[in-house]
Amino acid sequence: MYEGLVKPLLFRMDAERAHNMAIRACDFAGRSRTLRRAVARRFGVDDPRLRTTVAGIEFANPLGLAAGFDKNGRAVAMLGSLGFGHVELGSVSAYVSHGNPRPRLWRLPDDRAVVVYYGVPNDGAEAVAARLARRRPAVALGINLVKTNDPSRPAVEPDVYEDFARSLRLIAGSAEYVTLNLSCPNSADDRDFFDDHDRIGTLLGHLADVTTEVPLVLKLKPTTDRGKLRDIVQIADAFPSVRGFAINLPSGRPEHLKLKSAAAVLDFRPGAIAGEPVEAYLNEVLSRLYDAIGPGSRYALIAAGGVASAEAAYRKIQLGASLVQLYTGLIYHGPRLVPEILRGLTERLERDGFDSVEKAVGSGHGVA
């Protein structure tokens, strides 16, 4: 139904308009407990082999919805019924952010990708926290925090640290875990602030004063530089609240992305590419980050980028990811992709002799 009817209609619309329509539909449908339960029965895959515990949090399965789809917590109730083991919303900032001028989202159908130039528009942490107090998903909830994208609030010390601290104070009680987005690729004035790794330590020191025990995940600018990755891990070692790492999208048009879309099309679409073209590069970053955290680490890795099949999700688990997220895949394949991936994961676990997904994590690391 999605690919034959819904998708063609949505693809005739402006991409952001279609996105907003999907959020409104989920918001409306999610208000019905009966409908949420019916959807959960349709899309849920209950298999004990998929259950996993990360940072002390129990997940029904390792597949989650990445931040970016539901920026403001409007749709989380229904999204939590689609079969995901967790939903991550945001990015959310301390203050309201209007984002970049429109248009700021484009599809690349030839590449099964999108170009994202939102610039983290959101209602601000206070409004999102109030919304979540009224409605939450039935699965684990992560909240992605980012520095407010506003020219009147430039990326300078100590303002950046105070911005994150305000968000954390407001939002931490609503989440099972919090992701600190340290390099949003579409906030041009802010994305390089934490290239000075000492600032990561300074930020974590500020956040240590926030009275919360919520696990923190650091979302990093992608790099294959092993030295930089080890440096960040060593900084995090001093802060027990940091329990994991995630990898952001690369900004701009890295040469290593092999795109089918014409250059003339891309020239008028600024922003970061998300979807299948980034899979190989982000898998390489994931593998090197798994090296950097070392065996028996307290850190979990959350991986996204190009997850549009069970094989793509399983490959990330083999490379060291404890949790895997998707977003762009939903645009091209619809919600049926969630149970398809989960069933495919159970088949691969059985094929490879694993009685739990946790035992598969890192099993393919270093294997050509």
- Shape type: globular
Can you write the helix and strand succession as a string? Answer: HHHEEEHEEEHEHEHEHEHEHEHEHHH
Strand order of the largest sheet: 3-4-7-8-9-10-12-13
Question: How many domains make up the 3D coordinates?
Answer: 1
The CATH topology corresponds to TIM Barrel
How many β-strand stretches? 13
Tell me the fraction of residues in β-strands, as a range: 15-25%
Mean pLDDT: 93
The helix/strand class is alpha/beta
**Any low-confidence stretches, pLDDT <50, length ≥5?**
none
Helix content: 25-40%
CA-to-CA gap between the ends?
A: 38 Å
Work out the helix count: 14
Major sheet summary line:
8 strands, parallel, barrel
CATH superfamily: Aldolase class I
CATH architecture: Alpha-Beta Barrel
Q: Radius of gyration from the CA trace?
A: 19 Å
Top-tier CATH class: Alpha Beta
